[in-house]
Design goal:
By secondary structure, the protein is of the alpha/beta class. It contains 14 helices and 11 strands. 48% of the residues lie in helices and 15% in strands.
Length: 331
């Protein structure tokens, strides 16, 4: 009975605390046409302190989306174009000798911002990718002998172009696992594209208003952690992750030779966190199985390695995840 009372109270509290989500979405919709999944993914990453890997063809408002979000919450935004000749110092900064003071001074790089758009991350060599991923994981940068902590919130939205792969440096599995979500975005619908054209040829382009600050987001993150997740839901998450590692134990023997490796422990952690953030967006104080199913593809699609046999038979991670969700019993 006490648990039920607490859940009712928690639901009411979350409903009040999450009221700003609708305001953010409304402001985003002033500028971004369609792309509801992209906006939701940005909010999930922001509320659960996770980073996002975005895959989509050019021109789908990736830069505009994260720039708009930074304006809404009065945060610092920086776009970094990754190129083959980029150096780690171009990203994190370096030590510069001052003739006037006769000493070395730190010149901070563009990574010192709240929102980072790492455009075409797979175009830069491994050293630069490692510098970014270290900042993502540790939330700190070391330049010379000095260590600097990055401001909160710190969100990286890295993009990959799925079409042009020549001359790129694919992210290793261990590094790609550090991204909470991998989001696939597609072309807009016909009526959405017509509205996009209309907006872009008008006299003035719509602009989102600033309605929050970074302190509000940090407070919301703490509240997201309080969202209730039942033990049965935890077991459901564990079963989903284990099914990616040992498919034959879950009646999915047909995938045994298709999966090179399954989800890491980060997969389960991020499934739970993303589901909590999604429940918060929906204004609920508890995680439902449907929340897990909603975020599952984005959390797992980059964490399942396929064998050559799977590629030869055109088996995708999307199909494997969908089949796992169909087989695992919902609590």
């Amino acid at each position: 009975m006490n648990t039920e009372i607490n859940i009712i109270e928690l639901n009411e509290r979350i409903r009040k605390e999450s009221s700003f989500v609708g305001a953010i979405t409304s402001e985003m919709n002033k500028v971004i046409v369609g792309q509801k999944h992209l906006i939701n993914s940005l909010l999930i990453g922001l509320l659960s302190d996770g980073h996002i890997l975005l895959e989509g063809v050019p021109g789908l408002a990736k830069t505009l989306a994260i720039n708009t979000l930074s304006n809404i919450i009065s945060a610092k935004f920086c776009r970094i174009q990754f190129t083959p000749d980029l150096l780690p110092a171009d990203l994190i900064g370096t030590m510069i000798y001052s003739i006037k003071n006769e000493e070395f001074a730190v010149k901070k790089g563009p990574i010192f911002a709240n929102f980072i758009l790492a455009d075409e991350i797979n175009r830069s060599p491994a050293k630069v990718q490692s510098a970014l991923l270290e900042a993502m994981q540790e939330r700190q940068i070391t330049i010379g002998t000095k260590t600097f902590f990055l401001e909160k919130p710190f969100l990286v939205l890295a993009t990959q172009n799925p079409i042009e792969q020549e001359g790129t440096y694919p992210l290793p599995e261990a590094q790609i696992d550090r991204f909470m979500l991998k989001v696939i975005i597609n072309y807009p619908k016909k009526h959405e594209e017509q509205l996009i054209i209309r907006q872009n040829i008008a006299k003035s382009f719509p602009k989102a208003s600033t309605i929050l600050n970074t302190a509000d987001i940090i407070n919301a993150r703490n509240i997201v952690r309080e969202i209730y997740i039942d033990e049965k839901i935890e077991k459901y998450i564990v079963d989903i992750v284990f099914a990616t590692r040992f498919p034959d134990e879950y009646g999915l023997g047909k995938f045994k030779n298709m999966i090179a490796f399954g989800g890491s422990p980060r997969a389960g952690i991020n499934l739970a966190l993303a589901a909590k953030a999604y429940a918060f967006i929906q204004g609920r104080g508890a995680v439902f199985p449907e929340d897990i199913r909603t975020v599952c593809h984005d959390v797992l699609r980059h964490r399942i390695g396929l064998t050559y046999e799977a590629e030869a038979e055109n088996i995708t991670t999307e199909e494997i995840i969908s089949e796992i969700l169909n087989v695992i019993e919902v609590p």
